[in-house]
């Protein structure tokens, strides 16, 4: 089951948040999520012996799994699911390459460094259609 | 990734990219430069404006580049330069570019553009200091800024001014550090 999704820009501002299942999250929690991911990434970079290009991918607890996809341009996609969702790397890459880039990055209303939340009905629709089509959605 | 692998990747993506008519593209760009010359009336200002426009393009183009190429991180600047030359130029302009003249520290190199699609049908009046394709420098600077590389990028040679090749000098200035938004700062 997919709980919710965050998209953060490089500076840690949450530019997109959407919830499908589970509890509502407030702004404070968004900051905590980013803060944790940021610190974890630093730590993972230091602990891992080899240079990994992907960095950290998932954090698993006994009640949920947090999936992260981090682009070289600094955008972070975070998807929270239950523990049965499996590997969502391909799916998150799809969301970035086929939906985010096409619907948001190419829109003149969006600017790369802006801290304003993304307000794109097109992106909402395509994201929803795509996620609902996944077997792990419900 | 080796140099030839990048060339193959560039070719592959180029096949899949949506295309527009090359003459239409060249003429539109030309019309824009002419309009800038009329509006700004100063060649130096036009050069700067073109670079700035390129910068804005580059800041967006980087995501399309990363998404379509599947490239994520380059380990060193030499790899970055090769990726720009062999993958990025190929995928967006359909031309292949040579990387040459590295300095000893490997922080600065030249991109040799033998075939610049922007300058087809273009002739410059004599003794004018216009860098007609300066938009390319801006694109490179903008795109690299988004992946935390501060570079300087400028034309050294230009076929429109009678040189035998277009040469863009690319100099790495620094790796940009992450800067957090207001809400994460401690008082």
From TrEMBL, chain A:
Please identify the protein, giving its name as recorded. Answer: Trafficking protein particle complex subunit
* Segments passing through the bilayer: none
Q: What is the lineage of its organism?
A: Eukaryota, Sar, Stramenopiles, Ochrophyta, Pelagophyceae
**Gene Ontology terms: cellular component:** endoplasmic reticulum; Golgi apparatus; TRAPP complex
Q: CDD domains annotated for this entry?
A: TRAPPC1_MUM2
What the entry lists under Pfam families is as follows: Sybindin
Q: Which family does it belong to?
A: Belongs to the TRAPP small subunits family. BET5 subfamily.
Where is it mostly found? endoplasmic reticulum
Localization in the cell: Endoplasmic reticulum; Golgi apparatus, cis-Golgi network
- Please name the InterPro entries in this protein's record: Longin-like_dom_sf, TRAPPC
**Domain of life of the native organism:** Eukaryota
Q: Which UniProt keywords apply?
A: Endoplasmic reticulum, ER-Golgi transport, Golgi apparatus, Transport
Q: What is one process in the GO biological process aspect for this record?
A: endoplasmic reticulum to Golgi vesicle-mediated transport
Alphabetical list of SMART domains matching this protein: Sybindin
Subunit comment: Part of the multisubunit transport protein particle (TRAPP) complex.
Automatic annotation (TrEMBL), chain B:
Q: Write out the annotated subcellular location.
A: Endoplasmic reticulum; Golgi apparatus, cis-Golgi network
Q: Name one GO cellular component term.
A: TRAPP complex
Q: Which domain of life is it from?
A: Eukaryota
Q: Which CDD domains match?
A: TRAPPC3_bet3
Q: Which keywords has UniProt assigned to this entry? A: Endoplasmic reticulum, ER-Golgi transport, Golgi apparatus, Transport
Family of the protein in this entry: Belongs to the TRAPP small subunits family. BET3 subfamily.
Q: What is this protein called?
A: Trafficking protein particle complex subunit
Question: What organism does the record attribute this protein to?
Answer: Chrysophaeum taylorii
């Amino acid at each position: 089951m997919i709980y919710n999704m965050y998209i953060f820009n490089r500076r840690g501002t949450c530019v997109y948040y959407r919830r499908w299942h589970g509890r509502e999250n407030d702004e404070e929690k968004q900051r905590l999520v980013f803060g944790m991911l940021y610190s974890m990434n630093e730590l993972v970079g230091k602990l891992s012996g080899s240079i990994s290009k992907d960095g950290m991918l998932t954090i698993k607890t006994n009640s949920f799994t947090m999936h992260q996809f981090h682009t070289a341009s600094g955008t972070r996609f975070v998807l929270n699911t239950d523990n049965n969702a499996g590997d969502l790397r391909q799916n998150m890459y799809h969301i970035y390459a086929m939906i985010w880039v096409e619907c948001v990055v190419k829109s003149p209303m969006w600017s790369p460094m802006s801290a304003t939340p993304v307000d794109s009905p097109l992106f909402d629709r395509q994201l929803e259609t795509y996620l609902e089509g996944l077997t792990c959605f419900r | 990734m080796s140099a030839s692998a990048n060339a193959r990747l560039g070719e592959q993506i180029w096949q899949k990219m949506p295309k527009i008519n090359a003459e239409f593209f060249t003429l539109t760009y030309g019309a824009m430069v002419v309009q800038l010359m009329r509006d700004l009336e100063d060649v130096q200002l036009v050069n700067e404006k073109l670079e700035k426009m390129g910068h804005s393009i580059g800041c967006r183009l980087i995501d399309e580049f990363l998404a379509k190429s599947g490239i994520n991180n380059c380990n060193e600047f030499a790899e970055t330069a090769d990726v720009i030359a062999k993958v990025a130029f190929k995928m967006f302009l359909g031309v292949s570019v040579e990387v040459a003249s590295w300095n000893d520290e490997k922080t600065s190199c030249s991109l040799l553009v033998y075939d610049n699609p922007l300058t087809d049908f273009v002739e410059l009046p004599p003794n004018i200091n216009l860098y007609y394709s300066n938009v390319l420098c801006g694109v490179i600077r903008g795109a690299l800024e988004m992946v935390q590389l501060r570079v300087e990028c400028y034309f050294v040679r230009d076929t429109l001014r009678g040189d035998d090749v277009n040469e863009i000098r690319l100099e790495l200035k620094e790796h940009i550090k992450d800067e957090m938004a207001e809400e994460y700062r401690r008082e």
